[in-house]
Specification:
Elements (H helix, E strand, L loop, with lengths): L1 E2 L18 H7 L4 H8 L5 H6 L9 H5 L17 H14 L4 E6 L12 H6 L12 E8 L2 H4 L5 H27 L4 E4 L8 H7 L3 E3 L5 E3 L6 E8 L9 E2 L2 H7 L2 H5 L11 E3 L2 E3 L4 H8 L11 H4 L9 H10 L3 H15 L26
Bound molecules: iron/sulfur cluster (2 copies).
Length: 369
Protein backbone atom coordinates (compact mmCIF):
# COMPACT_ATOMS: atom_id res chain seq x y z
CA UNK A 1 0.00 0.00 0.00
CA UNK A 2 1.50 3.32 -1.06
CA UNK A 3 1.37 6.43 1.08
CA UNK A 4 -0.11 9.35 -0.80
CA UNK A 5 -2.75 12.01 -0.90
CA UNK A 6 -5.45 11.33 -3.48
CA UNK A 7 -7.86 13.93 -2.09
CA UNK A 8 -6.18 17.31 -2.36
CA UNK A 9 -6.87 20.34 -0.19
CA UNK A 10 -6.76 23.25 -2.64
CA UNK A 11 -8.23 26.17 -0.69
CA UNK A 12 -9.34 27.35 2.72
CA UNK A 13 -11.45 24.72 4.45
CA UNK A 14 -14.64 25.98 6.05
CA UNK A 15 -16.24 24.13 8.89
CA UNK A 16 -19.63 22.61 8.16
CA UNK A 17 -22.72 23.40 10.21
CA UNK A 18 -24.39 20.14 11.20
CA UNK A 19 -27.80 21.78 10.83
CA UNK A 20 -27.18 21.72 7.06
CA UNK A 21 -26.51 18.00 7.01
CA UNK A 22 -29.00 16.26 4.69
CA UNK A 23 -30.49 13.84 7.27
CA UNK A 24 -31.31 16.86 9.41
CA UNK A 25 -32.59 19.00 6.57
CA UNK A 26 -34.91 16.18 5.50
CA UNK A 27 -36.23 15.92 9.07
CA UNK A 28 -36.87 19.64 9.61
CA UNK A 29 -38.51 20.40 6.27
CA UNK A 30 -35.52 21.85 4.41
CA UNK A 31 -36.18 19.48 1.52
CA UNK A 32 -39.94 20.01 1.49
CA UNK A 33 -42.91 18.86 3.54
CA UNK A 34 -43.45 15.60 1.66
CA UNK A 35 -39.86 14.45 2.31
CA UNK A 36 -40.17 15.53 5.96
CA UNK A 37 -43.41 13.63 6.43
CA UNK A 38 -41.96 10.43 4.98
CA UNK A 39 -38.53 10.78 6.64
CA UNK A 40 -39.91 11.33 10.14
CA UNK A 41 -42.87 8.98 10.15
CA UNK A 42 -42.50 5.65 11.88
CA UNK A 43 -41.14 2.96 9.60
CA UNK A 44 -43.15 -0.17 8.95
CA UNK A 45 -39.90 -2.15 9.39
CA UNK A 46 -39.04 -3.26 12.96
CA UNK A 47 -35.30 -3.38 12.20
CA UNK A 48 -35.45 0.26 11.22
CA UNK A 49 -37.20 1.02 14.50
CA UNK A 50 -34.49 -0.61 16.62
CA UNK A 51 -31.51 1.00 14.84
CA UNK A 52 -32.74 4.58 14.35
CA UNK A 53 -34.30 7.14 16.68
CA UNK A 54 -38.05 6.75 16.49
CA UNK A 55 -40.84 6.91 19.00
CA UNK A 56 -39.74 4.32 21.58
CA UNK A 57 -36.25 5.40 22.61
CA UNK A 58 -35.70 2.43 24.91
CA UNK A 59 -35.97 0.06 21.95
CA UNK A 60 -32.99 1.79 20.25
CA UNK A 61 -29.86 0.49 22.07
CA UNK A 62 -27.57 3.08 20.46
CA UNK A 63 -29.51 5.91 22.06
CA UNK A 64 -28.48 4.93 25.55
CA UNK A 65 -24.81 4.94 24.47
CA UNK A 66 -25.02 8.71 23.99
CA UNK A 67 -24.92 8.95 27.79
CA UNK A 68 -21.59 7.10 28.01
CA UNK A 69 -19.84 8.60 24.96
CA UNK A 70 -17.88 10.82 27.34
CA UNK A 71 -17.29 10.51 31.06
CA UNK A 72 -14.99 10.89 34.05
CA UNK A 73 -11.22 10.74 33.62
CA UNK A 74 -9.09 8.63 35.92
CA UNK A 75 -7.01 11.17 37.94
CA UNK A 76 -4.06 8.75 38.00
CA UNK A 77 -2.75 9.38 34.50
CA UNK A 78 -0.55 6.71 32.93
CA UNK A 79 2.57 8.41 31.49
CA UNK A 80 3.20 7.90 27.77
CA UNK A 81 6.91 7.77 26.91
CA UNK A 82 6.52 6.39 23.44
CA UNK A 83 3.54 7.51 21.27
CA UNK A 84 4.40 4.79 18.69
CA UNK A 85 3.93 2.03 21.25
CA UNK A 86 0.78 3.68 22.58
CA UNK A 87 -0.66 3.96 19.06
CA UNK A 88 -0.03 0.25 18.47
CA UNK A 89 -1.71 -0.53 21.81
CA UNK A 90 -4.76 1.61 20.96
CA UNK A 91 -5.14 -0.05 17.56
CA UNK A 92 -4.96 -3.50 19.15
CA UNK A 93 -7.49 -2.42 21.83
CA UNK A 94 -9.83 -0.99 19.16
CA UNK A 95 -9.80 -4.30 17.30
CA UNK A 96 -10.25 -6.26 20.52
CA UNK A 97 -13.32 -4.13 21.27
CA UNK A 98 -14.89 -4.88 17.88
CA UNK A 99 -13.41 -2.71 15.11
CA UNK A 100 -12.10 -4.30 11.92
CA UNK A 101 -9.89 -1.33 10.98
CA UNK A 102 -8.29 1.35 13.16
CA UNK A 103 -6.21 4.36 12.08
CA UNK A 104 -5.01 7.54 13.78
CA UNK A 105 -4.56 11.12 12.59
CA UNK A 106 -4.24 14.63 13.99
CA UNK A 107 -7.72 16.12 14.26
CA UNK A 108 -8.24 18.65 11.47
CA UNK A 109 -10.62 21.36 12.72
CA UNK A 110 -12.31 21.31 9.30
CA UNK A 111 -13.48 17.78 10.16
CA UNK A 112 -15.33 19.08 13.24
CA UNK A 113 -18.87 20.43 12.71
CA UNK A 114 -19.18 24.12 13.62
CA UNK A 115 -22.57 23.77 15.39
CA UNK A 116 -24.70 20.91 16.65
CA UNK A 117 -27.58 19.96 14.39
CA UNK A 118 -28.51 16.29 14.49
CA UNK A 119 -32.19 15.48 14.34
CA UNK A 120 -31.98 14.40 17.98
CA UNK A 121 -30.50 17.84 18.87
CA UNK A 122 -33.56 19.50 17.35
CA UNK A 123 -35.79 17.18 19.38
CA UNK A 124 -33.91 18.05 22.59
CA UNK A 125 -33.65 21.78 21.85
CA UNK A 126 -29.83 21.73 21.68
CA UNK A 127 -29.43 22.37 17.95
CA UNK A 128 -27.24 25.34 16.98
CA UNK A 129 -24.81 25.16 19.90
CA UNK A 130 -21.22 25.97 18.96
CA UNK A 131 -19.03 22.86 18.99
CA UNK A 132 -15.76 23.19 20.87
CA UNK A 133 -13.66 20.07 20.58
CA UNK A 134 -10.13 20.73 21.86
CA UNK A 135 -8.75 17.21 21.28
CA UNK A 136 -5.57 16.86 19.27
CA UNK A 137 -6.01 13.35 17.84
CA UNK A 138 -8.73 11.36 16.11
CA UNK A 139 -8.91 7.58 16.08
CA UNK A 140 -10.93 6.28 13.14
CA UNK A 141 -12.74 2.94 13.50
CA UNK A 142 -14.42 0.88 10.79
CA UNK A 143 -16.49 -2.29 10.80
CA UNK A 144 -17.29 -4.43 7.81
CA UNK A 145 -20.88 -4.72 6.56
CA UNK A 146 -22.13 -8.03 5.17
CA UNK A 147 -21.75 -8.27 1.38
CA UNK A 148 -24.70 -10.57 0.85
CA UNK A 149 -27.11 -8.33 2.75
CA UNK A 150 -26.00 -5.21 0.87
CA UNK A 151 -26.77 -6.88 -2.45
CA UNK A 152 -30.47 -6.53 -1.61
CA UNK A 153 -30.27 -2.73 -1.96
CA UNK A 154 -32.57 -0.90 -2.08
CA UNK A 155 -34.76 -2.85 0.33
CA UNK A 156 -35.33 -3.63 3.99
CA UNK A 157 -32.47 -6.10 4.15
CA UNK A 158 -29.62 -3.76 3.25
CA UNK A 159 -31.31 -1.03 5.34
CA UNK A 160 -31.07 -3.40 8.33
CA UNK A 161 -27.43 -4.20 7.54
CA UNK A 162 -26.53 -0.51 7.50
CA UNK A 163 -28.35 0.01 10.82
CA UNK A 164 -26.47 -2.93 12.31
CA UNK A 165 -23.22 -1.43 10.97
CA UNK A 166 -23.91 1.80 12.85
CA UNK A 167 -24.58 -0.16 16.03
CA UNK A 168 -21.52 -2.40 15.61
CA UNK A 169 -19.14 0.49 15.03
CA UNK A 170 -20.58 2.60 17.86
CA UNK A 171 -19.69 -0.11 20.39
CA UNK A 172 -15.88 -0.09 19.97
CA UNK A 173 -15.91 3.73 19.88
CA UNK A 174 -17.75 4.00 23.19
CA UNK A 175 -15.60 1.31 24.81
CA UNK A 176 -12.29 2.65 23.45
CA UNK A 177 -13.06 6.19 24.61
CA UNK A 178 -13.81 4.82 28.10
CA UNK A 179 -10.58 2.80 28.02
CA UNK A 180 -8.57 5.93 27.20
CA UNK A 181 -10.27 7.86 30.00
CA UNK A 182 -9.25 5.03 32.34
CA UNK A 183 -5.65 5.66 31.21
CA UNK A 184 -6.12 9.20 32.48
CA UNK A 185 -6.75 11.15 29.24
CA UNK A 186 -9.84 12.87 27.84
CA UNK A 187 -11.66 11.00 25.09
CA UNK A 188 -15.07 11.27 23.41
CA UNK A 189 -16.82 8.70 21.22
CA UNK A 190 -18.49 10.00 18.06
CA UNK A 191 -20.95 7.69 16.33
CA UNK A 192 -24.22 7.84 14.44
CA UNK A 193 -26.66 10.01 16.43
CA UNK A 194 -23.83 11.28 18.64
CA UNK A 195 -21.18 12.85 16.40
CA UNK A 196 -19.46 16.21 16.39
CA UNK A 197 -17.10 15.18 13.60
CA UNK A 198 -17.24 14.14 9.95
CA UNK A 199 -16.07 10.53 9.95
CA UNK A 200 -15.10 10.19 6.28
CA UNK A 201 -12.36 12.87 6.04
CA UNK A 202 -10.98 11.63 9.37
CA UNK A 203 -10.86 8.05 8.09
CA UNK A 204 -9.04 9.27 4.96
CA UNK A 205 -6.52 11.26 7.04
CA UNK A 206 -6.04 8.22 9.28
CA UNK A 207 -5.12 6.02 6.32
CA UNK A 208 -8.15 3.72 6.34
CA UNK A 209 -8.75 4.24 2.62
CA UNK A 210 -9.52 6.78 -0.11
CA UNK A 211 -12.43 9.12 -0.80
CA UNK A 212 -14.30 7.65 -3.76
CA UNK A 213 -16.65 8.84 -6.50
CA UNK A 214 -19.73 7.94 -4.44
CA UNK A 215 -18.62 10.23 -1.59
CA UNK A 216 -17.62 7.54 0.89
CA UNK A 217 -14.40 5.78 1.74
CA UNK A 218 -13.00 2.78 -0.12
CA UNK A 219 -10.90 0.60 2.18
CA UNK A 220 -8.47 -2.02 0.95
CA UNK A 221 -10.06 -5.10 2.54
CA UNK A 222 -13.78 -4.24 2.28
CA UNK A 223 -14.08 -1.46 -0.30
CA UNK A 224 -16.87 0.99 0.66
CA UNK A 225 -18.65 -1.80 2.59
CA UNK A 226 -17.88 -0.28 6.04
CA UNK A 227 -19.43 1.94 8.70
CA UNK A 228 -17.30 4.44 10.57
CA UNK A 229 -17.02 5.96 14.03
CA UNK A 230 -14.38 8.16 15.66
CA UNK A 231 -12.78 8.68 19.06
CA UNK A 232 -11.18 12.08 19.68
CA UNK A 233 -8.60 12.38 22.44
CA UNK A 234 -5.46 14.05 23.82
CA UNK A 235 -3.71 10.75 24.53
CA UNK A 236 -0.26 11.14 22.88
CA UNK A 237 -0.28 8.96 19.77
CA UNK A 238 1.83 8.45 16.65
CA UNK A 239 -0.28 9.20 13.57
CA UNK A 240 -0.81 7.40 10.27
CA UNK A 241 -0.72 8.94 6.79
CA UNK A 242 -3.27 8.98 3.96
CA UNK A 243 -2.89 6.03 1.59
CA UNK A 244 -3.13 5.39 -2.12
CA UNK A 245 -4.53 1.89 -2.58
CA UNK A 246 -5.61 2.47 -6.19
CA UNK A 247 -9.22 3.31 -5.32
CA UNK A 248 -9.33 6.85 -6.71
CA UNK A 249 -7.46 5.61 -9.79
CA UNK A 250 -10.26 3.04 -10.19
CA UNK A 251 -12.97 5.69 -9.77
CA UNK A 252 -11.36 7.77 -12.52
CA UNK A 253 -12.10 4.95 -14.99
CA UNK A 254 -15.11 3.25 -13.40
CA UNK A 255 -18.53 4.88 -13.11
CA UNK A 256 -20.48 1.86 -11.97
CA UNK A 257 -21.98 3.53 -8.89
CA UNK A 258 -23.06 6.55 -10.98
CA UNK A 259 -24.59 4.34 -13.66
CA UNK A 260 -26.48 2.27 -11.09
CA UNK A 261 -27.59 5.11 -8.80
CA UNK A 262 -31.40 5.20 -9.02
CA UNK A 263 -31.51 8.96 -8.37
CA UNK A 264 -28.55 9.95 -10.58
CA UNK A 265 -26.99 11.65 -7.56
CA UNK A 266 -23.42 10.53 -8.29
CA UNK A 267 -21.44 12.51 -10.88
CA UNK A 268 -20.11 10.78 -13.99
CA UNK A 269 -17.61 13.58 -14.68
CA UNK A 270 -14.59 14.87 -12.81
CA UNK A 271 -13.95 16.24 -9.33
CA UNK A 272 -15.03 19.71 -8.17
CA UNK A 273 -13.85 21.95 -5.35
CA UNK A 274 -16.12 21.62 -2.33
CA UNK A 275 -15.27 23.72 0.75
CA UNK A 276 -11.61 23.77 -0.23
CA UNK A 277 -11.38 20.07 -1.10
CA UNK A 278 -11.10 18.56 -4.58
CA UNK A 279 -13.60 15.68 -4.75
CA UNK A 280 -16.56 14.19 -6.57
CA UNK A 281 -19.67 16.01 -5.44
CA UNK A 282 -22.64 13.76 -4.69
CA UNK A 283 -26.05 15.44 -4.82
CA UNK A 284 -27.23 14.55 -1.30
CA UNK A 285 -30.69 15.99 -1.87
CA UNK A 286 -31.36 13.79 -4.89
CA UNK A 287 -30.10 10.84 -2.86
CA UNK A 288 -32.43 11.41 0.08
CA UNK A 289 -35.41 12.06 -2.20
CA UNK A 290 -34.92 8.53 -3.47
CA UNK A 291 -34.60 7.16 0.07
CA UNK A 292 -38.14 8.30 0.82
CA UNK A 293 -39.54 7.41 -2.62
CA UNK A 294 -41.25 4.20 -1.54
CA UNK A 295 -41.63 3.81 2.25
CA UNK A 296 -43.45 0.51 1.70
CA UNK A 297 -40.28 -1.07 0.32
CA UNK A 298 -37.22 0.72 1.75
CA UNK A 299 -36.04 3.50 4.08
CA UNK A 300 -32.68 4.26 2.51
CA UNK A 301 -30.33 2.95 -0.14
CA UNK A 302 -26.86 1.44 -0.40
CA UNK A 303 -26.86 0.60 -4.09
CA UNK A 304 -23.66 2.56 -4.76
CA UNK A 305 -21.90 0.44 -2.12
CA UNK A 306 -23.41 -2.82 -3.31
CA UNK A 307 -22.36 -2.45 -6.96
CA UNK A 308 -18.81 -1.14 -6.37
CA UNK A 309 -16.21 -3.58 -7.70
CA UNK A 310 -14.18 -2.96 -4.51
CA UNK A 311 -17.10 -4.19 -2.37
CA UNK A 312 -16.76 -7.87 -3.16
CA UNK A 313 -15.98 -10.25 -0.27
CA UNK A 314 -12.45 -10.18 1.11
CA UNK A 315 -11.29 -13.43 -0.52
CA UNK A 316 -7.87 -14.09 -2.11
CA UNK A 317 -8.76 -13.30 -5.74
CA UNK A 318 -10.46 -10.05 -4.68
CA UNK A 319 -7.41 -9.08 -2.62
CA UNK A 320 -5.17 -9.97 -5.56
CA UNK A 321 -7.16 -7.87 -8.08
CA UNK A 322 -7.47 -4.79 -5.86
CA UNK A 323 -3.75 -4.99 -4.92
CA UNK A 324 -2.93 -5.10 -8.62
CA UNK A 325 -5.20 -2.06 -9.15
CA UNK A 326 -2.83 -0.02 -7.01
CA UNK A 327 -0.05 -0.71 -9.51
CA UNK A 328 -1.42 -0.16 -13.02
CA UNK A 329 -4.34 1.15 -15.07
CA UNK A 330 -4.33 -2.09 -17.07
CA UNK A 331 -4.98 -4.03 -13.86
CA UNK A 332 -7.85 -1.67 -13.01
CA UNK A 333 -9.42 -2.28 -16.42
CA UNK A 334 -9.16 -6.03 -15.90
CA UNK A 335 -10.76 -5.68 -12.44
CA UNK A 336 -13.71 -3.75 -13.91
CA UNK A 337 -14.06 -6.10 -16.90
CA UNK A 338 -14.13 -9.19 -14.65
CA UNK A 339 -16.63 -7.51 -12.30
CA UNK A 340 -18.95 -6.70 -15.22
CA UNK A 341 -18.76 -10.31 -16.43
CA UNK A 342 -19.30 -11.93 -13.02
CA UNK A 343 -21.87 -9.53 -11.52
CA UNK A 344 -23.12 -7.67 -14.59
CA UNK A 345 -23.01 -3.98 -15.46
CA UNK A 346 -26.33 -3.51 -13.65
CA UNK A 347 -26.32 -6.07 -10.83
CA UNK A 348 -29.90 -6.86 -9.89
CA UNK A 349 -31.03 -6.42 -6.29
CA UNK A 350 -31.80 -9.81 -4.76
CA UNK A 351 -34.80 -10.36 -2.49
CA UNK A 352 -36.05 -12.91 0.05
CA UNK A 353 -34.58 -12.98 3.55
CA UNK A 354 -36.46 -13.60 6.77
CA UNK A 355 -40.03 -12.49 6.02
CA UNK A 356 -38.96 -9.94 3.39
CA UNK A 357 -40.04 -10.71 -0.13
CA UNK A 358 -40.58 -7.17 -1.42
CA UNK A 359 -37.97 -4.72 -2.60
CA UNK A 360 -35.91 -5.24 -5.71
CA UNK A 361 -35.58 -3.14 -8.81
CA UNK A 362 -35.97 0.58 -8.25
CA UNK A 363 -36.83 1.17 -11.90
CA UNK A 364 -40.45 2.09 -11.29
CA UNK A 365 -39.75 4.17 -8.16
CA UNK A 366 -39.04 7.82 -8.74
CA UNK A 367 -37.47 10.21 -6.22
CA UNK A 368 -39.96 12.38 -4.35
CA UNK A 369 -40.45 15.71 -6.16
S1 LIG B 1 -18.34 1.87 -8.27
FE1 LIG B 1 -16.48 2.46 -9.39
S2 LIG B 1 -16.57 4.70 -9.49
FE2 LIG B 1 -18.01 4.08 -7.92
S3 LIG B 1 -16.88 4.14 -5.98
FE3 LIG B 1 -16.68 2.04 -6.77
S4 LIG B 1 -14.77 2.03 -7.97
FE4 LIG B 1 -15.37 4.18 -7.66
S1 LIG C 1 -27.38 5.75 -1.67
FE1 LIG C 1 -28.54 5.14 -3.51
S2 LIG C 1 -29.52 7.04 -4.18
FE2 LIG C 1 -27.89 7.64 -2.79
S3 LIG C 1 -26.07 8.02 -4.04
FE3 LIG C 1 -25.96 5.85 -3.41
S4 LIG C 1 -26.99 4.71 -5.04
FE4 LIG C 1 -27.56 6.88 -5.29
Amino acid sequence: MRKGITTRIVGPQERFDQRNQMHTQAAIGGVGEKVKERWTKESIDPFRRIFYPEKRAKNVPMRSWRDVADGPINPERMPVDDPETMAARIKEAGKFLGADLVGICELNLASVYSHTGLRIDFAKGTAGEEIKLPHRYAISLAVEMNYKHLRYSPGWIDNAEVGLGYLNVAKPAVALAAYIRELGYPARAHFFINEWVLHVPIAVDAGLGELSRNGIIITAPFGPRVRLSTVTTDLPLAVDSPVDIGAVSTCEICKKCAENCPSQAIPRGGKEIVRGVEKWKVDAERCIRFWVANPNRWNDCARCIAVCPWSRPNVWYHRFSTKAAARSRAAIKILLWVDDIIRGKRPKPVIKWLEYTEGGSPISDKPVE
